Amino acid sequence: TEPAFIPVRSCSIDIHPNARWKQNGLAVAGGNGKGNGINQLSHPCGLYVDDDQTVYVVDQSNHRIMEWKSGVTSGQVVAGGSGQGSGTHQFSKPFDVIVDKERDSLIISDYSNRRVVRWPRRNGTNGETIISNIDCLGLTMDENGSLYVVDVAKVEVRRYRRGEFQGTVVAGGNRRGDRLDQLSGPTYICRSKAFSVRI
């Protein structure tokens, strides 16, 4: 089951409780109607903002990851964009993206291909599958380089330390439900500064 509502990752950002928001926002990616042009998006879902305000957007229906530098009017395809498929250069309904700064790469949940892919951030033409056979949605990484992945089918979050292939369940994993040891439709995940996982 694909989720209908997709929230934006937020717990890694400190927002002052008295902060005031401008009434009119500014489009930083897309904003030119639905489409597959470099200034358009089609069903954007995952979003990652880098330290230099570069925005990475999962352009789900175009099966690509777009990079939008601050102040530009069009983006650049940085991963995928070769049509829907399961090749190392393709995605099928990708869902989320994060940046692994230590390895200068993107980590992408390739939902319909049931895999998590690492893609070089600079001039990459192919990705490498780092986790297979997983119904992955949200992703995050902690300060030690451990990767956290939401598996919507198993209704759990797994942590993968570097070199691990099975990972460890850190939330859910006890079927769908409303008990404190269960989850129901987990989508996105982030890590707080208190080292807890938020789903």
TrEMBL record:
It comes from the Eukaryota. InterPro entries: 6-blade_b-propeller_TolB-like. SUPFAM superfamilies: NHL repeat. Gene3D superfamilies: TolB, C-terminal domain. This is NHL repeat-containing protein. It comes from Rotaria magnacalcarata.
